[in-house]
Design a protein that fits this description.
- The complex is a heterodimer of chains A (333) and B (299).
- Chain A has 333 residues and is an all-alpha fold.
- Chain A has one domain.
- Chain A is built from 15 helices and two strands.
- In chain A, a hairpin with a 2-residue loop joins strand 1 and strand 2.
- Chain B is of the alpha/beta class and 299 residues long.
- Helices cover 40% and strands 21% of the residues of chain B.
- Chain B is built from twelve helices and ten strands.
- A six-stranded mixed beta sheet of chain B has the order 6-7-8-3-9-10, with helices on both faces. A four-stranded antiparallel beta sheet of chain B has the order 2-1-4-5, with helices on one face.
- The longest helix of chain B has 21 residues.
- The chains are: A mainly alpha (333), B alpha/beta (299).
């Protein structure tokens, strides 16, 4: 029969696991880009990859077994990527950035998995021998299992989750502070009308570049959380469709609201895990015949759901959970 | 009102009415400015001086290059060649934001109210040299908090003066066209400009608000701010400007006090074409144009 307890437990566990944390951070980056600065970034996964590889390569190829240096290098990788994308495109219309980001993210993945770079990036297998210095910092007992309520985690997992949510809290505070400051006002003004901001003495290009870097660094942090959580970096995880899952999370929560990526990511992981587990159990309990769908196909369903829910959101609630519809309707000039 | 206008025009009253005439105390001096789009020369201005503390109107028939000229002066478009002296300082490569920081602020023909920001935030955006606009300072409210409070107080003062105080918390997107014009003008004052460039300040404003807008433009001059504006409505031009510059086909064809412009032959030629019978004043000219359109429509 269907084990509802297990399904709910799984859903809640996933909702606070490192994947959800990475989604929060990546979507928070897109929120800074699109929600506040009006920059269309369809290649956020590229920033995630840059962060992950910067982190991993420092610990392996660069041979610096220091987690803090690795985080710093990961951030620098993301900043570099932002400059690479932003400097040529931010003087142009908004759509140019969108085109460049989606292509550049794929280029990052293809370079990382390329065979000639195998000695450095591990090629298609990626990196998996870097997590030692991070685990050395773990205050929890790595082999023990910690449980509270429906949750139970091994010490290594718990460490990633605790560090990750602290990071999320810091990032929420950072974004809130920035967007409530005069800096945020300029950035939002540029989103509304770049020429108006320029006419009032604001260097729109420079502010857009700053926003691109900030959001990109948040993407990079997401990559580092993923690397630490998986204890591995797989290049093919960083494929273009991932970016749209981050967008879904952001739109679900509401574009241009500080908390929306947090709520969006948690809800996303609850829903996805629930559907996946329910589907598997329905099939294995024989309630859905395998002639219709078998267990290996269940995972595909979640992507139908993603596409369908994006479409439905755009039609029925484009402002997401937190947004206000009146504000969205103010576009008319 | 009439007395105001005459006293204000005093420094310009003895000037000859010719294009490129030099003024006693120019805030803006333009030399040899040219801009071509492909084969079309949109702007070709040999010399123009804008007198400090005056309201200068820039008029001309459609396609005369007024807006392009405005864009060149404010850095929104780059001239092929030409130099600009703003308050004695040469502006080599003008960019809109450096010009605005230096005291030349413009508004737009199609208003650019920031629709999804409240009115008060629109206003506060205009203030210059805000510490909190630097990324790292922005992180510490204590660094910019005091300045922010001062800016807000000044914004409220200006909103009251522009009779918009009651709308401070509303999204700018809910304002009417005329209110947006007012907001844009008030916002430009937040930048403490020395020269305000208004691109068609009366376009799309309902008649009830026109008088109020005109009064505000005049009050800018009374505060010592130089105003230059592009306008189509000749009543407006006559009512508030101290000096009129006429453009046609990219060139400046005439300059003079507003009363004199209607009789200027070059101006009438520019508006009506060279083959007209006799000198007309502006009202007659507009009638004539309307008739011509009717005839064209009939054919």
């Amino acid at each position: 029969m269907i084990d509802w307890g297990f399904i709910f437990e799984q859903s809640l566990t996933q909702a606070i696991d490192f994947n959800a944390i990475a989604f929060v951070l990546a979507a928070m980056g897109i929120n800074v880009h699109f929600g506040y600065a009006g920059l269309l970034n369809f290649g956020q996964i590229g920033f995630v990859a840059m962060g992950a590889y910067g982190f991993g390569l420092t610990l392996t190829w660069f041979g610096i077994p220091n987690v803090f240096v690795a985080v710093l290098i990961g951030i620098l990788f993301s900043v570099f990527f932002a400059l690479l994308l932003g400097i040529p495109t931010l003087r142009l219309r908004a759509d140019y950035l969108a085109i460049v980001t989606i292509a550049a993210a794929e280029i990052v993945r293809l370079i990382a998995r390329s065979t000639p770079l195998r000695p450095i990036t591990g090629g298609a297998e990626g990196l998996n021998q870097f997590i030692g210095p991070f685990r050395d910092l773990n205050p929890f007992n790595a082999s023990a299992t910690y449980g509270f309520g429906p949750f139970s985690y091994r010490g290594t997992q718990l460490f990633v989750i605790v560090v990750g949510w602290i990071l999320v809290a810091l990032v929420v505070l950072l974004v809130r502070q920035l967007m409530g400051s005069p800096w945020g006002r300029v950035v939002k003004a540029i989103r509304e009308d770049e020429d108006a901001a320029r006419a009032l003495g604001k260097n729109a290009y420079w502010y857009k570049l700053q926003a691109l870097i900030l959001g990109g660094v948040l993407g990079g942090l997401a990559g580092m959380v993923l690397a630490a959580g998986n204890a591995a970096i797989q290049p093919d995880f960083f494929a273009a469709p991932q970016t749209f899952l981050f967008w879904l999370v952001l739109i679900l929560g509401g574009v241009g609201r500080v908390w929306s990526p947090v709520v969006g990511a948690v809800l996303y992981w609850i829903i996805i895990t629930f559907i996946r587990n329910l589907g598997r159990q329905l099939v294995s309990a024989g309630l859905v015949p395998t002639s219709i769908i078998d267990t290996s196909q269940i995972d595909q369903i979640q992507f139908w759901i993603v596409g369908l829910s994006l479409a439905l959101l755009m039609v029925f609630r484009p402002q997401g959970i937190f947004g206000s519809r009146e504000e969205m309707a103010l576009d008319a000039r | 009102m009439l007395d105001d206008a005459t006293t204000a025009q005093q420094p310009l009253s003895r000037l000859p009415w010719e294009p490129g005439v030099s003024k006693p105390d120019p805030i803006l001096v333009v030399d040899g400015m040219r801009k071509a789009f492909g084969g079309l020369v949109a702007v070709d201005v040999d010399h123009l001086e804008v007198e400090r503390g005056m309201i200068t109107a820039l008029i001309g028939p459609n396609g005369a290059g007024k807006t392009t000229f405005f864009n060149l002066l404010t850095g929104f478009d780059a001239p092929d060649r030409g130099s600009v002296l703003f308050d004695g300082e040469s502006i080599d490569k003008p960019s809109p934001h450096t010009l605005a920081q230096n005291g030349m602020v413009r508004t737009f023909q199609l208003t650019k109210a920031l629709t999804k920001l409240p009115v008060i935030e629109n206003m506060k955006l205009g203030a210059r040299s805000q510490k909190g606009e630097h990324f790292f300072y922005a992180l510490l409210s204590s660094v910019w908090g005091d300045q922010e409070a001062q800016i807000e107080a000044r914004a409220d003062e200006l909103l009251t003066r522009f009779q918009m105080g009651h709308m401070r918390g509303e999204y700018a997107g809910t304002l009417s066209g005329g209110q947006r014009k007012l907001l844009e003008m008030a916002r430009s004052l937040m930048a403490e400009p020395r020269l305000v460039m208004l691109d068609e300040p009366m376009a799309g404003v309902n008649p009830a608000l026109t008088q109020s807008l005109l009064a505000h433009v005049k009050s800018l001059r009374d505060e010592g701010i130089t105003v230059m504006f592009v306008e189509h409505d000749m009543d407006v031009v006559r009512d508030i400007s101290d000096w009129v510059v006429v453009m046609a086909e990219g060139r400046i064809i005439a300059e003079g006090p507003p009363g004199s412009i209607g009789q200027n032959k070059a101006v009438i030629d520019a508006y009506l074409g060279v083959h007209h019978d006799s000198a007309l004043d502006i009202e007659e000219e507009e009638e004539r144009l309307a008739e011509m359109h009717e005839i064209e429509a009939d054919e």
